[in-house]
Amino acid sequence: MKRSVFKNRGLPYLLVLPQVVVTLVFFFWPAFESLRLSFFRSSAFGDKVVFIGLENFQKLLVSSDYYQSVVNSFIFAFGVTALGVGAGLFVAALATQRVRGLVAYRTAVLWPYGIAPPIAGIIFLFIFHPSYGVLPYWLSFVTAYEFNWLLQGWVAMALVIIATAWTLVGYNIAFFLAGLLAIPTSVIEAASVDGAGAIRRFRLIVFPLLAPITFYLVVVNLIFSFFGSFGMIHAVTQGGPGGATEIMVFKLYKDGFIGLNLGSSAAQSVILMLVVIGLTALQFRFVEKRITY
Amino acid sequence: MRRTVNVFAPALAALALLAASLSAPAPALAKTEIHFWHAMGGQLGETVSELVRQFNQSQGEYEVKALNKGTYPEVLTAAIAAYRQKNPPHIVQFFDVGTQTMLSSGAIYPVFQLMKEHEIAVNWGDFIKPVTGYYSKDGNLYSMPFNSSSPILYYNKDAFKKAGLDPSKPPATWKQVGEFSKKIIAAGGAKCGFTTSWPSWTMLENTFPWHDQPFATNENGYKGLDTKLLINGEFGVKHIGQLAAWQKEGVYSYGGRMGQPDPKFINGDCAMLVQSSAVIGGFKKSIKFDWSTGQLPHWGAPYKKQNAVVGGGTLWVMKGQKAADYKGVAQFLKFISDPHQQMWWSVTTGYVPITQTAIKNLEAGYHFKKNPEQWTALSQLSGTPTANSRGHRLGNMAQIRDAIEPELENIFAGKKTAKEGLDAAVAKGNDILKEFAAANKP
Question: Which residues on neighbouring strands pair with residue B66, listed in sequence order?
């Protein structure tokens, strides 16, 4: 590897300085501020602030609502990731076939990623809303089944999972496409000559070679589901019905911004941070050992 | 080192220039700006803008800048953030249930005091009692009443006709609501009988005072902070239990929180809707069929018919701005509460007029005869409120509402009985009240 040598000893530090400053100001400072706030009970306008130690955390640990939001978060995150990554791989595999208009297809399948989650949420509302959605309206002609996720929790959860996975699928496809196109055709042809069918080739050659990308996408999708899915929940279900889609990041928002309970909200964000850091660390350890690039 | 300096010098110079241009004094403005953050979107927002435009044209000293900051909770969050950064808007519109939070905040400039200190005469006694009762502390108004509404029953006259019902007679009792609904569904007038917007507000927060039932201890929180909810008593269980039973039969169709259920009524799916009178103006524009309104249904004897509580918002003046600005704030608040503006606001939106003078003037012009739906909401606010019907003075009530509504959903979904669901809502609500009391110890 080529070593870069800086004649001026100060220059490299100066060059990384902007990145360090950005990281400190926009990541470490807020994180530290959350940590600090989580030890206080504070009135909404911040005029009365009392140190209460770990009470905010204690309260969360005995709150059944909080446990439900943790369970919801994991169901949501793993659901979104399984669906988003699975569908991404499937569509990417299709988009490597030799068909006419391939470029148009490839462009089209990447589109959903360009749509912000709240906008995607609104689009899904127009399609699925029991009061004014198109789909329930059409369904009412063919079946007596009432598609009402305003009261059925698992339907609401399925809806937000599908909607979020849909916004992520374009991103996943882009990575899988790149990965698939990077696999040398000679390897696959050799397997064909040896008599391996399409499914066998995919299972034994393509999928293992894609493993690093798959792994990367699983991590990114999980983290997005835990942190970045707020807009979708906010636009579609607001955590309802009965708290069935209240994931951790949404509860944190609700308690902090509607409930104005900043201490509890900060404590929740600290826990969420720990969950995601833990998850990522675990996965990276796992991947370093098992997946060879 | 020399090289780096060369690289960064132009950038630094540019930055310095930028900073200088930002801190340079702006050209002297002829008018003092007054910032007003509100939560009125759509047709209501346009009406606010028009009111503000009228004020700005009426005088040359102040320029009110109205800004829609989203929903009520979003407006408050934004105002709190601005207040903490020592640059709050002068005026913030916030909803009824936020009253206790604002009173405890220490961040507000009481309106009665503002008016007194700027020697602007306001006839406080002219405001109708449910309004002064809700927003006063120790007999003084702390925020300026602005948009006040109460939940009323909207009904589809065409659906009533189809079912052979008299379209001039809305159901007065909940029993009739059930009967009428069944007839309408059987006759094919609509798919469901009725739905309810803002479920906690219409079905609990207003239904309790409407029947003179206590919503919480301490006279609904007016007497102190150590308050507990009372919605899981016999009356609450009866009312919510009946809704759950109707939901099962298809008579009632739960349609979500806030205004989400409105489309069910607008598109004709449900024959009746309980929703704020504030949407009258919007409905007049958007609904194609023949509709009218009735009072919030009542359970009848043995319950007394009392009054509904005002919903909607008031304007809070925030501390922390330049002392000279507050004269303009006082003038603006005076302007919008004058009978002329108030009548125009009420007629355009569907919010109720809130002073006796405005009501009398509107009556004199046969306004309510011509627009009976605007009389409906007002008629529910008449009389002298009791300890149960003055309003709700609960800390973090927006969060309490957020604790109640998921439980209502559990009940309507059949996952919990009315008693179990309301018990859970009370337990969560009491925790929130306890937390608020602890955070706001005097």
Answer: B36
Choose from A6, A33, A45, A51 for mutation: most chain B CBs within 10 A: A45
pLDDT digits (tens, 9 = 90+) for B279-298: 888 898 889 999 999 999 99
Question: Cα separations (Å) of B379 from A87, A224, B168, B339, B423?
Answer: 58, 51, 17, 19, 33
Number of A to B CB contacts under 8 A, please give it.
Answer: 109
> Is B187 in the same domain as B272?
yes
Q: Is A151–B260 a contact, with Cβ atoms under 8 angstroms apart? A: no
State the average pLDDT over residues B360-386.
86
Chain A CB contacts of B418 under 8 Å are none
CB contact under 8 A, A131 and B255: yes
A270: domain range? 58-290
CB-CB neighbors (< 8 A) of B192 in chain A: none
Query: Read out DSSP for B30-41?
Result: SSEEEEEEE---
Hey, are the CB atoms on A241 and B260 less than 8 Å from each other?
no
B424 occurs within a structural domain: yes
In whole numbers, what is the pLDDT of chain B averaged over residues? Answer: 88
Given a cut of 90, whether residue B110 has pLDDT beyond it is yes
- Please tell me whether residues B192 and B179 are part of one structural domain: yes
Number of H helices, E strands in chain B: 21, 11
Of B46-60, B298-312, B365-379, the poorest mean pLDDT is in B365-379
Q: Which two tokens stand for residue B105?
A: 């905040």
Min distance A149 CA to chain B CA atoms (Å): 9
Mean pLDDT of B26-36: 75
Banded model confidence at residue B21, pLDDT cuts 50, 70, 90:
very low
B249, B200: one domain? yes
- Mark whether B145 and B155 lie in a shared domain: no
Domain holding B98, by residue range, is 32-149+311-372
What are the φ/ψ torsions at residue B168 (nearest 5 degrees)? -95, 0
Looking at the partner chain, which of A46, A240, A259 has a beta carbon nearest the beta carbon of B257? A240
* Of the partner residues A48, A152, A153, the one whose CB lies closest to the CB of residue B440: A48
Tell me the pLDDT tens digit for each residue of B316-360.
999 989 999 999 999 999 999 888 899 999 888 888 888 889 999
Nearest-angstrom CA–CA distance, A224 and A83: 14
pLDDT digits (tens, 9 = 90+) for B237-252: 999 999 999 999 999 9
Residues B300-323 have a mean pLDDT of 91
Pairing label, strands B32-38, B91-95: parallel
Classify A122 as helix, strand or coil: helix
Four-point Cα dihedral B87, B90, B91, B94, nearest 10: 30
The list of chain A residues with pLDDT below 50 reads 293
Question: Which residue from B77, B256, B413 is facing A257, i.e. has the nearest CB?
Answer: B77
Among chain B residues, the shortest Cα distance to A65 is held by B428
Q: Phi-psi bin for A226: left (phi > 0), alpha (psi -120 to 50), beta?
A: alpha
B168 and B100, same structural domain?
no
**Nearest residue to A263 via CA among A7, A79, A43, A91:** A43
User: How close is the nearest chain A Cα to the Cα of B439, in Å?
Assistant: 5
| Tally of CA atoms within 13 A in the half-sphere of B361 that contains its CB | 16
Q: Is residue B56 part of a domain?
A: yes
* Chain B residue at shortest CA distance from A251: B402
